[in-house]
Amino acid sequence: MSALIRVLLSTETAQLQPGERAETTLTVQNLSETVGRYRIAVEGVPPDWVRLSRRELSLFPNDQDQVRMTVNPPNVPGTQAGRYTLQAHVVSEEDPTERTTVPFLLQVGTEAILAATLQPAQLAAAEKGSFAVQLANAGPVDLNVLLEAVDPAGGCFFSFEPPQVTVPAGRSASAQLTVRPLQPLSGRTPVQHTFTVEAWPAESPRLACQMVGRWEERPRRAARWPFLAAAAVVLIAAAVLFYLFAWPRLQGPRGGGEDGPTSPLVQNTVPPAAAAAEATQPAPTTAVVPATPVEPTAAPPAPSPTPDLEAEIYARLDEYNTVRAQAEVELEPELLRQVCVDPYLTQKMDLVNRNIADGTHWETPQVTFTVTSLNLVDENRLEVGVRKTETKLYYPQGSAVPDDEICTGTIYSYRDCTYDILYIMVQQEGQWYVADFTVIGGCTNECQH
Fold first, then answer.
1. What is the pLDDT of residues 130-153, one digit of tens each?
2. Helix ranges restricted to H, 242-336
3. Confidence (pTM)
């Protein structure tokens, strides 16, 4: 520190979140007996974090002046949280060995950067519940997030895949949560399970997020194929008896009713004279041979979905909703290949690519659904009826809020909308995929103000 240059800071410390700013004032005094010219520089952080109102000063003996220093760590993924020591140097241009340095302590924090949601928040299913934990890191550093679930009633156990999630700075990630009962359901009455999911960064446990989930455990549906098989056997037996006993009687010569004979069985071709002669002869008798009955082949009963297939399809549609929402918010169309095939895959990827080009995106903060029907067309094709309740928000280019909060132009967002949808699902290599769908009903797009 030079005895000829005095430097004072109005504030010597600051604690900031990325994007915030702080100001301090450097007071520089010339203690020499000659006019001094000074250069001012700051080290210890990237140059774009600091701005100086001036970088050069000229002072008469015993004169002083002030320079304003603004510190602003940017809110971008490259900004690292931590403790920084800035060094403000005031150096004499006439004699560079004359310099005074003062420290400024800066703490860049990571507060309020983790957000977590459970999708769906509640569902009803047999045997197990499948949920997705969506994690969003809006901060400047990567986070290693740990997950835990607790059932206060002690009726469930939980598994996460993966059990620990790395969420990159400024990005999102997810984990699959499976909830199973400790004891199999007895009887036909559904059981409600309410549980809490906690997510916290290993680097900062005090930033933990909590979510509440609800799973209605429903009894398994009784298998229907034994009843269908029994019905088919009864129908086949009835058909065989009918053709053995009733059909021959129906094939005899038809007598005439009040409308006369339906049609002659033999056409008379004998001349009238010969006919008169033949009238004196005994009439020949003709044996009527009953037709041989033909037994029809009974059509096999239509295939019926098993409870295991129903549970598999529910879990697969739940995964489809999660991956579709992730692809839309992260603008990653390739993710859709995990759950979709053509023709829907190409259509949906084109829509996401259009969002990328336009600088827009969709977010789905809430979606729940129930399967209302399941029709097994064949072993590799399904028609699945679903009733879905969904909130879907559209973010225009450069906007941090959805269009139904901006309320200018056309509104595409909709909230808490319930509608029916028919999915066409196909099986490829042992896995079910959404191939197409038809929406039944519509949603209202309204301004929120």
1. 999 999 987 767 788 999 999 988
2. 247-250, 272-278, 307-330
3. 0.36
